[in-house]
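Side project, low priority. Logging it here so it doesn't get lost.
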Amino acid sequence: MRSDTSIFRVLGPAFTLTTSSAAAVRTSSGVGQFTQHVRITATGAPVWVAFGGSTVDAVANTGVVLLAGESEVFRIQGGQFISVIRIGATDATVYISELCY
C-alpha cells in the first residue's frame, strides 16, 4: 500500500533493526498505542516483514517483501511488534517510523 506520507505526522524516534545473520529480528517493544501506520525503509538488502504480537518472527518466503532502497507505509495496530529477516547473505538495516494522522 502506497500512501502520501505528507498527511501523516511522525510520532517519535524511529526503530532501527539490523540483520547480521539469517535470523529474524524484531522491535524491542510494540509501536505506540496511537500509532496508525508505520513507514519502513530497508537499506543494504531486501527483507521479509511481519507484524504481530511480542513473539512475531518474520519468516523467509512469507509475508511482505521490502526491497533495498525502498520505503513503504503500512497500516498497523497500536502495540504491534515488527519483525524482519534479510533475503540473501547481505546484512540489511531497516528504519521504522511511527505515523498517525
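Brief comment: Strands lie at 9-10, 15-19, 25-26, 37-43, 47-52, 64-66, 71-75, 81-86, 92-100.
Revisit when time allows.
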